[in-house]
From TrEMBL:
The lineage of its organism: Eukaryota, Viridiplantae, Chlorophyta, Mamiellophyceae, Mamiellales. The keyword Cell division does not apply. The keyword Amino-acid biosynthesis does not apply. Belongs to the PIGL family. It comes from Ostreococcus lucimarinus (strain CCE9901). This is N-acetylglucosaminylphosphatidylinositol deacetylase. The chain crosses the membrane at residues 6-24. It is an enzyme of class 3 (hydrolase).
Amino acid sequence: MKRDVVVTSVAFAGAAVACSLVALRITRKIRTRTGLDPFAVPNGSSREKGADGRKAALVLTSHPDDESYFFAPTIQALKAANVETHLVCLSDGGAGGDGETRKKELLRVKELFELEGMCIVEAEDLMDGMTNAWPAKTVMTVLDEYTGGAPTTFDYVVTFDAGGVSGHLNHVCTYEGTKQWIEERKVSISSDRGGCPQVWVLETTNAARKLSGALDFATSYLESLIDSRRVFVPSASPMQVLKAVRLHASQFVWYRKIFVVFSRYTYMNTLRRID
């Protein structure tokens, strides 16, 4: 019986990866023709961002491993578009007393994705915990400090949406803080603050879609065609995503092993612009 389950899981994983590769090829062609890629720079345009002319993005997460389980396809897309990519994690994920271990694991993921910058915030009011509500003002302060305009001016901020993918309170508070931050920044924008970045949030889906793997490709892609503020981002390499989550060894327990195989976030992201 166990062998049948293992064989079925492996077969599904193989099929999901194959579907994802096909999806990647199709969407690359369509996104190039329609301009759906939010991170692409049109031919002949000028990138006046930083000394090397590259655009820059800030991926804001709540815990070490969020970037791998949820945001990996987006990070891959940013890197493929030659966008300078920074990761800010609002806690060390140390609710179980393993914060130091999780920080070291995240450093290894930084190297895997070749991120240009990373910061792990350690603040008393941003403690990891399912019931810990994080103050929006603290999240906003972190964003102010990291996006102050020097040495990097950010074009994009990517974070959770109001559902937080899993409904985790820390994820939801991360979104609420980011939402208030961009709203205030749009009102009080000034040239010395480096302008107003685009803010993209990772869409939460229902449980059936969340656990449908690459089979959610068609629905997600069609939604991106209907809504101009929504973008479909397929994973450039599901195998790299699997490698990334395995680097978080302290968290790679049996149910997360199952989740990463069946999760749509391994194979695709859907981003929605809120600024």
